[in-house]
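User: Predict the structure for this protein chain, please.
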Amino acid sequence: MLAIKARIARAVENLKERIIEVAEAIFDHPELGNQEFFAVELLTGILAEHNFKITRPLCQLPTAFRAELNGGPGPRVALLAEYDALPELGHACGHNLIAAGSLGAALALATVIKELRGTVVVLGTPAEETRGAKVVLVRQGVLDDVDAAMMFHPADTDAAEVNSLALDALEFVYEGRPAHAASRPEEGINALEAVIQLFNNINSLRPYLEEGAVIQGIIAEGGTSPNVIPERAVARFYARARTRGALNKVVKRVENCAAAAALATGCRYWYHNYEPSYEPMLTNRALAAAWRDNLRELGVMVPASPSCSRGSLDMGNVSQVVPAIHPYLSLNAGKLVPHSHQFARAVRGEAGRRVVILAATALAWTAADVMLDGHLLQRIKEEFAGTIHTRHPDA
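Assistant: Here is the predicted structure, written as structure tokens:
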């Protein structure tokens, strides 16, 4: 094992310039979710050069892909790549580093594939920030044959175990009746008033939500002119909670707030999920321990305590069907706020270059552990089976 890991480390070092070039090329060509054609062409082109079998598009998603390199019978380990950017902010979440880190790990593993006795899978997963392609990939069975899945995320802290919140994206549409706002207001039914009442109702609800539950919202449509009573108004919310059961309770209470707003104003309304729902991240601790051990060998000490994120990840959906990790690696650039210009500058600078090489090595080493250490794989699978049974006792 030590000899193989030494060869992997040398391979990453030899690939260092290419990995960094990929990270910075994707950063310099930011693409929104489901529009990441430059990133996909770049990644799949390089993987094909290294004899990976490419499948694209995947699950009718034009910028999703699967790349495989088979070294013989054995475990199948998936390295997940994200590459979508944020509107106006570009790669202020570091997805360019995620893509390049998984790519670098896959290329390094390819140099020892015959000794690994298994299959390296790279999954290109677009639109994490919005429509969460991993949700579709899970739903359509793309990960059903995978033994372990992993990726990393740049951050301002190191964490091997990461928890995240379940999320539902809710859009409420109210319809009223237009009228002249000054001369005949009594003839109108104000849809915007319903949306405002909805916000007020939800604000009154906040103090009574259980710990960890949050609701964030915007007014997406609110009328066209102050002189016309708005006939249509739309509000969008992200509702989050620590578990799916807790989130279902939150959503039910938000539904009651919406119904009350419609009743108070006389509007008709309906709602739907305008983006896929994200499940909470269930980190596989045995797999996370292997990651932590590898980072220690690379000179990085990672706290044993889990990091409880207040955000949501479509990697959470992956973790419901396959043992998975989504660790954080610190950029070591001081206090950083994701989705900010400051974070983007760190990602494009020396901090990002250092982290992407560290990530490629740690991912490749951890994948090699899974493929070569049968006892580790057994612990990973037993833990996952126990987690599934705990969540679904009737299964």
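The CA atoms of residues 69 and 110 lie 7 Å apart.
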